[in-house]
Amino acid sequence: MPDPQGFLRIGRAVQGDPHRDPVERVGDYHEVFTLLPPGEVQQQAQRCMGCGVPFCHNGCPLGNLIPEWNDLVYQGRWREAYERLDYTNNFPEFTGYTCPAPCEAACVLEINDDPVMIKQIELAIIERAFEEGWVEPRAVVNVTGRSVAVIGSGPAGMAAAAQLNRAGHRVVVFERDEAAGGLLRFGIPDFKLEKRFVDRRLKVLEAEGIEFRCNVDVGVDITADELRAEFDAIVLAVGSRLHRELDVPGAKLEGVHLAMDYLYDRNRVIAAADNPKLARHPRGPGGVPPTGAAAAYYGQITAAGKDVVVIGGGDTAADCIANAHRERARSVTQLDRYPPPAGTRAREIATWPEMPRRLPSTYALDEGGVRRFDVITLGLSGDDQAEGRVEAVEIACSSGPPAFEPMPGTEERLPAQLVLVAIGFARPERDALLGQLDAAEDAAGNLAAPAYETSVSGVFACGDARRGQSLVVWAINEARECAAVVHRYLAGLG
Length: 494
Known about the structure:
Elements: H1 6-9, H2 22-25, H3 38-45, H4 55-59, H5 66-74, H6 78-88, H7 92-98, H8 102-105, H9 118-132, E1 147-151, H10 155-166, E2 170-175, H11 183-186, H12 195-207, E3 211-214, H13 224-230, E4 233-236, E5 242-243, E6 256-258, H14 259-274, E7 307-311, H15 315-326, E8 331-335, H16 346-349, H17 363-366, E9 370-372, E10 375-382, E11 390-397, E12 412-415, E13 418-421, E14 425-427, H18 432-437, E15 459-461, H19 464-467, H20 472-491
Parallel strand pairs: 1-2, 1-4, 2-3, 4-15, 6-13, 7-8, 7-13, 8-9
Antiparallel strand pairs: 5-14, 10-11, 11-12
């Protein structure tokens, strides 16, 4: 039973998430997020009111049983808290470190107070579970004899594989990059999600019997027909990786890069520095020319000593800013065409329990750099518009949405030797596999799979490939629901 007066006597420990000091953390690539001591976590869990209608359930795409494990943590029953958390979430460590916590925005306390530290409590539970050895490989009980190929090893692919494996099916995950994890490994920097957490979970999944085949470009190294001949079902968890391009003069100048190309490159460089087996070589790791997506990387893009301009206002832009700081960029400027949100608390700027648009400083800007709102990028200039290197970004103040027209007389020229474009993703890439399957698309260009099965029988889709660019927590939710549909399909094959 929750403490009926806990929220009256105990305040939130910190605003937002607890982080390491910016001055300290900007000098390394270790996790910026910190954990509260167990006793303080229990005290924060005591603030949960155990609402009769827990809106935090609705705020969380996974429907996590938040009041239940809050109460168990408050009572010191950590293992039971882990069991309740594990019941709905395959990877609490991934959501704990990367999720923006829509559950906290939906907390009833948020109406007129600071919400319960749900994200911090979740992370404390799963970290304790790993420390105590409670996270163990699960034995598969009912082997069905059916097989499933999962294409993509990001959070959606990993979660779909975990669920289908537990249902008794043989699961093989195909990944075109050199290691599993998808955007968790290559798109999110180490200082937001250290790769040891990804590797730790992968070891559990492999011990459960899931096979990961990396460096396999499905559609090229193995065709769609060969895949369908080998497996009873296919799950497409390929993400939404087609970038939105910057459509202005000079966008093809040298030194202008898509944000995810920069992040992939930096993650590979850090991985090589941490692992001698991946030591860099002019021809790639171990002297072997890198293949596939890795061929274009290994330290090709750097912010060191440069004036960096990041175009875009989201999380990916923040990750680029923080990476540039760690490379010792000369200056970092973020350009956001939208106006700043008008407020700092959810009740001021949003209808509870909706996710608010707030204006805190991001973790990256706490480390340095300048953020500018209401700015339109007019073009990029360099010594040669066709082949030269970028030297400046031409900008102007914006009239704001929906037109975003440049305001005359506000033009400026920002020096830049590296420009990173972080304006989002449009849809899944139309690679060889999707071309061979020829599955139908929806109006936005995503895979059309209203009930998770595509227009091709036995081929399913989940995560960003189906719903468009979204959160890790949504990817896990999609994968769990998709796996249930695949399981029913396989059961009906007779």
